[in-house]
Design brief:
Layout lengths: L23 H31 L4 H6 L11 H8 L3 H32 L5 H11 L8 H10 L6 H26 L2 H9 L4 H12 L1 H16 L3 H6 L8 H10 L7 H21 L1 H6 L8
Length: 298
């Protein structure tokens, strides 16, 4: 007895999935959206690419043909920007200030948001709305009080004082962003941790923080970008040139010599200032897209 080859499986025509026809109006909206997105990409990408290209050119090449590619890759611009223009020291100062402010903001913001979201007490909503009201307070209105407060405690013109100020202004947005994440986490997990003998601190750091990791990662990225690009606070509260952050250093470098400035080094300094923010976003972009998925009670 011989076995023939098995015939390919066939399905009835009605069992095969049919593609849903896209209405003309939705197709038009989708096409218009793609055009707008493409235009946005061009508006954002072209200036950045032109800046990167110009960072490898000499000043004479930039003035002679601004949009032409460099004759050779002139890496000396990055060396000059890092050493002669002082971008290296400004970069280190920025890392110290932003890093310290980010750690303070994330720890205090997460703890405050967790307490407001998970515990009921008198004044809970009042404290929350006061935090939200802090988002509407313009920074320039607080410059004079901050100046005298930091001067009174001996932190005016210091990197720790600037880091504390950064953290204070980033805290309201952090709390406002994290309260919904902690509020939607399943209470059954908290109860299980308490049954196992975990206290409030252990429950927070070992259970709640890992479950809220997408939200924490997202707000950390947003805070990093905002603090890295901060300009008004350091200009008003950090007058020591040796303690300048990158935004101050870039402004000083761009205005110190008028048209006699080394524009190749200036563009190289801009690239070095922007790259950390771009790298952080590219590394943690999955956390931004995954922040929508909050833990659910199973």
């Amino acid at each position: 007895m011989t076995l023939g080859a098995a015939a390919p499986a066939t399905f009835p025509a009605e069992a095969q999935p049919r593609r849903k026809a896209i209405p003309p109006r939705e197709r038009a909206v989708g096409g218009a959206s793609q055009v707008v997105l493409a235009a946005g990409v061009v508006l954002v990408a072209l200036p950045f690419l032109w800046t990167v290209m110009s960072s490898f050119k000499t000043s004479s090449e930039i003035f002679a043909s601004p949009f032409a590619p460099p004759s050779r890759l002139n890496f000396v611009n990055y060396v000059n920007a890092w050493t002669q223009a002082g971008i290296g020291s400004f970069f280190v100062n920025t890392l110290i200030v932003v890093g310290g402010a980010l750690v303070l903001t994330m720890i205090l913001g997460a703890m405050c948001a967790y307490y407001l979201a998970r515990f009921e007490f008198r004044g809970n909503r009042l404290i929350y709305w006061l935090m939200v009201a802090g988002l509407t307070f313009p920074i320039f209105l607080a410059i004079v009080p901050l100046f005298f407060i930091l001067k009174g405690i001996g932190l005016l013109g210091t990197l720790p004082g600037l880091a504390i100020t950064y953290a204070a202004f980033a805290l309201p947005f952090t709390v406002f962003f994290l309260v919904p994440f902690f509020k939607e986490l399943p209470r059954s997990v908290t109860e299980a941790a308490q049954i196992d003998g975990a206290g409030e601190w252990r429950t927070f750091f070992s259970v709640m923080v890992p479950m809220a990791r997408p939200g924490l990662a997202t707000i950390a990225i947003l805070n990093f970008v905002g603090l890295w690009n901060q300009f008004l606070l350091p200009v008003a509260l950090n007058t020591d040139q040796h303690k300048y952050v990158l935004t101050q250093g870039m402004a000083s470098f761009a205005s110190q010599a008028g048209y006699s400035i080394d524009f190749g080094a200036l563009f190289a300094a801009v690239v070095m200032t922007v790259m950390p923010v771009l790298i952080v976003y590219l590394v943690f972009q999955r956390a931004l897209s995954g922040s929508i998925a909050i833990g659910t009670d199973k």
